[in-house]
Amino acid sequence: MVNISTPVIILNFKTYRQGTGENAVELAKACELVEQESGIPIVAAVQAADIYRVVSSVDKLKVIAQHMDPVEPGKNTGFITPEAIQQAGAIGSIINHAEHQLPLEKISELIKRAKALDLFTVVCADTARKAGEVARLGPDMVSVEPPELIGTGISVSKAKPDLVRSVVEKVHAINPELPALCGAGITEKEDVIRAVQQGAQGILLASGVVLSKDPEGVLRELAAGFR
Ligand code: G3P
Questions:
Q1: How far is the CA of 66 from the centre of ligand 1 (A)?
Q2: Is 3 exposed, middle or buried (0-12, 13-18, 19+ CB in 10 A)?
Q3: Interval 145-167: pLDDT, tens
Q4: DSSP letter assigned to residue 77
Q5: CA angle 69-132-199, nearest 5°?
Q6: Is 191 near ligand 1, meaning CB less than 6 Å away?
Q7: Nearest Cα to Cα of residue 95 among 78, 86, 108, 83
Q8: How many C-alpha atoms does 160 have within 13 Å on its Cβ side?
Q9: Closest C-alpha residue for ligand 1 atom 2
Q10: CB-based contact 142:123 (threshold 8 Å)
Q11: What percent of the chain shows pLDDT beyond 90?
Q12: Is the CB of residue 178 less than 8 Å from the CB of residue 144?
């Protein structure tokens, strides 16, 4: 599996127009530039339909899917298998994002499938309890994201510092080597500085960069928050 070191910025392009098709390629190139300049790993989470296009257009940037379906290769229609995202060039996937949640048993099944394929997994959790549950399943990273803050510009590290701290403690009590990230509402350097102070080893974000008039400039500012 590709090793993703921390601290890390995982940028979720979601289905925003600004992160789709050729726009996804331009955004990925901005991620690659800032990663090269700053030395902070940046991972692009793109729509399945854009994986091959984006991977073909960047050099070293790591690209992951936003979701994988727990279905086997075979008689299934309209799903996204781990095998397919890997063959498109993705090195892993988000699992259980607040906007595409799965039952715990399916999350467990997907993590096993991903491990068998050497695919990276970052599993999202909306509460500290859920973060502990998914941490026990052996993902590569866990990210807490309170859904009510997603897209608001009110960062989880400012609005819910105790949540971030408790998730870091809970995850590291289960596996001290398992990186705990946080996301939702993150838009600026101060949000990153506070997340780091609370023990987070990376951030998962979307609108603060994807909807910005200067995605590259915002990414540069966020990366500086880890120094
Ligand atoms: O996956 C990260 C995303 O859900 C956070 O959204 O727009 O608040 O950064 P946003």
A1: 12
A2: exposed
A3: 999 999 999 999 999 999 999 99
A4: S
A5: 110
A6: no
A7: 108
A8: 24
A9: 205
A10: yes
A11: 98
A12: no
Q: Is the CB of 207 under 6 A from ligand 1?
A: yes
Across the chain, mean pLDDT equals 97
**How many angstroms separate the alpha carbon of residue 109 from the centre of ligand 1?**
25
- For the full predicted model, state whether its pTM sits above 0.70: yes
Task: Report the run of H or E that residue 15 belongs to, with start and end.
Answer: none
Domains annotated on the chain, with CATH: 8-224 (3.20.20.70)
- Rounded to the nearest angstrom, the distance between the alpha carbon of 183 and the centre of ligand 1 is 6
Alpha carbons 1 and 20: distance in angstroms, whole number: 26
**47 Cβ inside 6 Å of ligand 1:** no
Amino acid at the residue 183: G
- Hey, what's the torsion of the CAs at 149, 153, 158, 159, to 10 degrees? -30
- Residue closest to 1 by CA, chosen among 93, 117, 83: 117
Tokens representing 38?
Answer: 């700053």
> How is 34-73 classified by DSSP, letter by letter?
HHHHH---EEEEE-GGGHHHHHHH-SS-EEEES------S
Q: Does the beta carbon of 185 lie inside 6 Å of ligand 1?
A: yes
Decide if pLDDT at 1 tops 70.
Answer: no
